[in-house]
Amino acid sequence: MSTVPTDISEYDAIEKTLQPYIDGARSGKGEDMRPAFHKDATVFGYVGEDLFAGPIQNLFDWNDGNGAATGLKARIASIDLIGTVATVRLELDDWTGHRFTDLFTLLKVDGRWQVMNKVFHLHS
User: Fold this and answer.
1) What does the domain layout of the chain look like in residue ranges?
2) What is the pLDDT of residue 2?
3) Long-range contacts of residues 92-96, Cβ cutoff 8 Å, at least 24 apart
4) Pick the CATH number of 8-122 from 3.30.70.980, 3.40.50.300, 3.40.50.1970, 3.10.450.50
5) How many Cβ atoms are within 10 Å of 22's Cβ, its own excluded?
6) What is the CA radius of gyration of the chain?
7) Which of 2, 25, 57, 112 is the most buried (most CB within 10 A)?
């Protein structure tokens, strides 16, 4: 078991990694989100009773069709970091009238944090 503390700058780097996702939600442009995600990332969650699942491109396409969320409020609720792996809980309110809780898994690939998976809950 390692007793070496995690460098605080890693938390900052993770927050910076998620910023394009938040900015893309606000702009309504999936392409603005892309830098946060690994090319093979996936997305999973329910919209009503329908499973929304598959490659991350599905999220980008949905975002393009959904439009800009100019009133979006976003807050990172937690970051759990273990070496080259991290999980993040992000709370989003007023994404075009919806509230989401997103859970991300990130991996540090070639020295850069990337989202590998997004799982979300759409609040009723």
Assistant:
1) 8-122
2) 52
3) 92/22, 92/25, 94/69, 95/25, 95/66, 95/69, 96/66, 96/67, 96/68, 96/69
4) 3.10.450.50
5) 22
6) 14
7) 25
Q: Tokens at residue 86, please?
A: 């991290």
Along the chain (124 residues), what's the average pLDDT of each consecutive run of 10 residues?
Answer: 70 97 98 98 96 98 96 98 96 96 97 98 96
pLDDT on residue 121: 98
Quote the CA–CA distance of 46 and 53 in Å, as a whole number: 8
Tracing tokens 């690994």 back to the chain, one arrives at: 38
Distance of CA 59 to the CA centre of its chain: 10
Contact 119, 44 (CB under 8 A): yes
